[in-house]
Amino acid sequence: MRTEEDLLTVRHAVRAATVAVGFGLVDQTRVVTAASELARNAYVHGGGGTVSLDYPREPSGRRGLRLTVTDEGPGIADLEAALTDGFTTGAGLGHGLGGARRLMDEFTVRTGPGEGTVVVVTRWAVR
Fold first, then answer.
1. Which of 18, 38, 53, 126 pairs as cysteine with 23 (C-beta 3.0–4.6 A)?
2. Tell me: the pLDDT tens digits for 94-110?
3. Which of 117, 85, 120 is nearest to 106 (CA)?
4. CB under 8 Å, gap of 24 or more: what pairs does 75-84 form?
5. Longest dimension (CA), the chain
6. Residues in contact with 45: Cβ distance below 8 Å, sequence separation at least 6, in sequence order
7. Alpha carbon distance 23, 67 (integer Å)
8. Rounded to an integer, what distance in angstroms lies between the CA atom of residue 29 and that of residue 103?
9. How far apart are CA 59 and CA 61, in angstroms?
């Protein structure tokens, strides 16, 4: 993701992936919203980055969609604060990371000053 247009491409790709996995409209919207927030954070705060999509499957056969959003920016200095609603270092509303965490079933962040940030989120389809 290097341009505003890339953010739109991410949204379209994630929407298509949610349909392929079999998510209903509400879960499609949740995943696309989380992806949009995370991609925008990587673009604005991390200077760009990448989004990869994976399709995990549980032994029971349940399917999911996993997004890995990576940037090589300065990292998140205070992750706990960044996950708090209303916290922002920019002009946004401060719901990005915390909102993405609430919208997805699984959420992990690896970050550190000068190390960039990797956010991995997964949503599982209802069987």
1. 18
2. 457 998 999 999 999 99
3. 120
4. 75/111, 75/112, 75/113, 75/114, 75/115, 75/116, 75/117, 76/45, 76/109, 76/111, 76/117, 77/113, 79/109, 79/111
5. 43
6. 71, 73, 74, 76, 89, 90
7. 15
8. 9
9. 5
